[in-house]
Amino acid sequence: MSRKVEMNVVSAGWTQMELVLLFYGWEACDPAHYWGPGVRDSYIVHYVHEGHGTVYMGDREYPLSEGQGFLILPDTVIHYEADAEEPWTYSWFGFRGVQAKAFMQRAQLSEEHPVFTAHEPNMMAALYDEMLQAGTSSLPGGDVMHQSLLYRLMAALIASSPIKEEENPLLSTKETYIRQAVRFMENRYSQRTTILDIAQAVGLDRTYLSGLFKERYGKSLQAFFLEYRMNRAAELLRNPMLSVSEVAHSVGYTDPLLFSKMFKRVTGVSPKGSRVRD
């Protein structure tokens, strides 16, 4: 069989958003075709449409077939190989973002458990085609369609998790606190809101709440809120009609100099530099 590959790059620019699609592709692999061992710098979900193959991560191996898939985590060594007799055909979706780790945790996908069986195989199988249609459409809004399809992928992965959130009371309680805190931040990021304000709104000790964010997102509550504000600021900076000072006030900073310092700390560039890059 002749190997066939399709690869589509969606975003090579700003990747500090909550969730952003980077690329997607499809491949009908040759017998025994393999990748790795190696690491990638983003999350990549592979879904097997037909055939067989094996994923190797750590000291474990996972044989997979049609209707199953696997997750590549950033900076995690992985090796995967198509079957020599019935090689797999798979599609893949690469993404990053502040919420990426949290979505994967909700889907219960991790280095210890990187594989899944699709709850809705037909929907998973159709996602690549819909991505391709969005990318080739002449109508405006293709980027928005890509993002909506990425969120559908997240929902499908969560639905495919082996233990549902409602079956784990402890997980559900923690998730409720985190969602309440995130909603509060979404509504109050433009005001002079403190970490104590967020904790009091949720009804938890701020140290405990920060620990929940560290567990879920890999960063403290303060770091998460700072990143959230700077993500919003980056979006506003794309509007040339807004001054840096106006953007600063729009995300809760009365001091433009402090805002510029925080923005550069998070993004690596100054607000003005961000505009030049875009």
UniProtKB/TrEMBL annotation:
Protein name (record): AraC family transcriptional regulator
Gene Ontology terms, MF aspect: DNA-binding transcription factor activity; sequence-specific DNA binding
Source species: Paenibacillus amylolyticus
Classification via CDD domains: cupin_MmsR-like_N
HTH araC/xylS-type domain mapped to chain residues: 179-277
Keyword Transferase found: no
The entry's keywords: DNA-binding, Transcription, Transcription regulation
Keyword Flavoprotein included in the entry's annotation: no
Family matches, as InterPro entries: AraC-bd, Homeodomain-like_sf, HTH-like, HTH_AraC, HTH_AraC-typ_CS, Tscrpt_reg_AraC-type_HTH
PANTHER family, per the entry: ARAC-FAMILY TRANSCRIPTIONAL REGULATOR (PTHR43280), MMSAB OPERON REGULATORY PROTEIN (PTHR43280:SF30)
